[in-house]
Amino acid sequence: MAAYSAPQFDAPLLARLRAIFDRHAGPDRKWNKEQVEAFFHHIQADSNNPQQQPEILDKGGLGFDQFVRYMTSPAAEALAPAPAAQQDLSWPLHSYFVSSSHNTYLEGNQLTSDASTEAYRTVLLRGCRCVEIDVWDGGERFTDALDDEAAAENVEGGGEEGLAPAEAAGEKVGFRMRTMMKVSGWVADKLLNEKGKRDMAEIQQNWGKMVAAEPRVLHGHTLTKEISFRDVCQTVKECAFQTSDLPVVVSLEVHCSPPQQEMMVAIMEEIWGDHLLPPVELEAMERVAPSPAELRNKILVKVKYVPPKEGRGGDGEDDNAVEDTEGLEGIEGLEPEEGAPAKQQAKPPKIIAILSRLGIFTRGVSFKAMEQAEAEMPHHIFSLSEAMVDDTHQQAAGQFFAHNKRFLMRCYPAGTRVDSSNPDPAGHWRKGIQFAALNWQTWDRGLMMNDAMFDGSVGYVLKPDGYRGLKPGDEGDAGSEPAIPHRTLHHFSVHVLAVQNLPLPPDVRDSDGLHPYLTMGLSVEPHPLGTTKREPYKARTKTQQGVNPDFAQEVLSFANIEGVTPELSFVVFQVWDDRPGLDPVMAGACLRLDRMKSGYRFIRLMDSQGVATDSIILVKIEKKMS
């Protein structure tokens, strides 16, 4: 959460505050002690929570200046502090929702945007605790491993475009050079005597020292630009534990050949060092996963699990058969045809054992069905696309939810979201999924909900009662587990008084040309064991004008909504510019329903790119729930 900055009020909003104060004041335009207590008890609903009581409650009376000071203090913010119970870090890993990223390396859309290490830096410093790396074979490049003299002996006259050894370092090995070495090796094997073969073997050994091919990171089968796997690992190390010491999960999608996988392991071990967990015989471990508190400053590698008997090559499957086409399904020409014979489909690369062994508490397993044997394997993690999540939940909602009480699951956006848009993660959390991976480069409703879920946390939020099993060591059986919350939201209303300092869109120079209106959406997912979907409840204000619009206490409200879990329900506010056929979003905010305080409050707005602004909304919030 950003450091608190007290708002400065312009004249229109100050007038609104004056009207609120006068409405509750006596003839002398002041509040006596009884009026102060009545306001904070009946309207602000703060008097029952000592942590939220402002200091002015201890005073005998209240003047307007003191009221304004209260309204500029954190006590008047609409967002309540994160509940302490949700920050209990002593439960097993699968008992938490974890702030997660999808295709973390991308700066924009899924087809043509650049990859960047800065994308990893950005999400980690914003509190993300699960990043994704898609790894592919890298091209050979000249190195500076040999001194100039040795390099000169081996590349004299052979460097592409006549490059000198020093100039060749870091350059890609050209087609001519690669062909020459391959043909030379073939000729030596077929035509030369034993001494000639030994000489050629020595040349090829020196060649191996002169060139190197390190894995690269990119979105395969697209026009996205690549970055170095080594650079990504270095950035993860630098940023992983700056904002939190809780574990970071690195989800590997591996497309590399076995030699490049060996290099991946060497790079991770070299750079991450003690941040990696030591090798463990999992069969000898207890079945329950450790807690986030026990994994502080650790990097957990999520990678395809290969049983030890499979040896070097693994079982021929990818990290997850579904996940290795992650981001590609639904894009014509980039995925195997449905029903095509197995021999015609591209066979995914094998995962070597030394890479697989890095996945200790996050052993990736290909998802086929809830009944598969691996669904009970200790420390496994399934990865499903949003479409497969919906399909599987429709078929076996009870099994799906029960599985996620004891084991990890990750879901990711559909491949048809080529614009890097996001689904609403609340639907995935409501099904018990721990890692709802999102495209952090796109600030839309989905990412707004993610920000609201983890605001004020350390990237891990304990699931509500009913969404996790019993804590290890607790007495009792499954029948003693808490029930899934089922509450009714009888009344929820937001009185919109005024907005201040709206950010002007780039194409609007005159504030008089701005015609804002406010929408409010309430995302309340249905019961996790049900299969019916519930669309967000929506309401909007009338259109106003200018950057400081007065909405005249217009009321947006919803009533009698059943099956509510407040910790997994979200209120999304968005300010739009009313234009024919356009209606661009200017600013927005999202708050978790359980953390919205009642009474007269301020809501801080982000701009359309998710950047904090000095724009605020003055509202009056009323809610009644049983």
TrEMBL record:
The keyword Lipid metabolism applies. SUPFAM superfamilies: C2 domain (Calcium/lipid-binding domain, CaLB), PLC-like phosphodiesterases. Residues 471-607 form the C2 domain. This is Phosphoinositide phospholipase C. SMART domains: C2, PLCXc, PLCYc. The lineage of its organism: Eukaryota, Fungi, Dikarya, Ascomycota, Pezizomycotina. Gene3D superfamilies: C2 domain, Phosphatidylinositol (PI) phosphodiesterase. It is an enzyme of class 3 (hydrolase). Its EC number is 3.1.4.11. It comes from the Eukaryota.
